[in-house]
Design brief:
Two copies of one chain form a homodimer. The longest helix of chain A is centred in the C-terminal third of the chain and has 22 residues, at 79-100. In chain A, strands 1-3-2 form a three-stranded antiparallel sheet. Chain A is α+β, with helices and mostly antiparallel strands and 110 residues long. In chain A, a hairpin with a 2-residue loop joins strand 2 (60-67) and strand 3 (70-77). Chain A is 54% helix and 17% strand. The A-B interface holds A 1-2, 4-7, 9, 11, 14, 16-17, 19-20, 23-24, 26-27, 38-41, 82, 85-86, 89-90, 92-93, 95-96, 98-102, 109-110 and B 1-2, 4-7, 9, 11, 14, 16-17, 19-20, 23-24, 26-27, 38-41, 85-86, 89-90, 92-93, 95-96, 98-102, 107, 109-110.
Chain lengths: 110, 110
């Protein structure tokens, strides 16, 4: 049982806030810093630290630009990031399966 | 979008190793320390620290005993632990749904 799905989870991606960032960026393709901060209820400093971790791991790209003359920071997933998110989701599904297959009747996990 | 599923995840339960512990204990109902250590490929010290976090949060119970005259440490989920695991799984499923609903054709998350 050394192949337990929890062993396949990557701490860089699995961490709660970073998983949220990657899911949101995946869904929106390109996301502005302020939107991530509001959606995930983070301080700018905390969000910045997590983005830094993801950027260093080559999972996201950060682009600075302007929108309506205001400076903006845009976040997108890299190809590595899309692959890493797919692996995370696949391992999470396996883990959910191990939990749900032993549910007693009337104790269904929803 | 302040109700993003990532905001509903509890760091105590979501952390990779602790989620693994809770999934295994849930599946086996009662698990011995050495089995968890082997299955999750941890040092005794590291496993002990994570069990301590879960016990302090009233998510698991730890019982010391003997099996074949050898000292054993058994781990079970508390009622709170079962509820917390259910909540974690429910939020993970929502998060997986947000990722999968935007997959492009041929890019299915498996």
């Amino acid at each position: 049982m050394t192949d337990h799905p929890a062993n396949g989870l990557d701490d860089v991606v699995h961490q709660r806030v970073r998983l949220g960032i990657m899911a949101i960026v995946h869904e929106a393709r390109q996301v502005e810093f302020g939107f991530l901060r509001t959606t995930l209820q983070l301080t700018a400093g905390n969000l910045g630290q997590h983005l830094n971790v993801l950027e260093k791991a080559d999972l996201i790209e950060i682009h600075k630009g302007y929108q309506d003359k205001r400076p903006c920071t845009w976040v997108t997933l890299t190809a590595n990031g899309r692959t890493a998110l797919r692996h995370e989701i696949a391992h999470l599904k396996q883990l959910i399966h191990t939990v749900e297959r032993v549910e007693a009747p009337g104790e269904a996990v929803t």
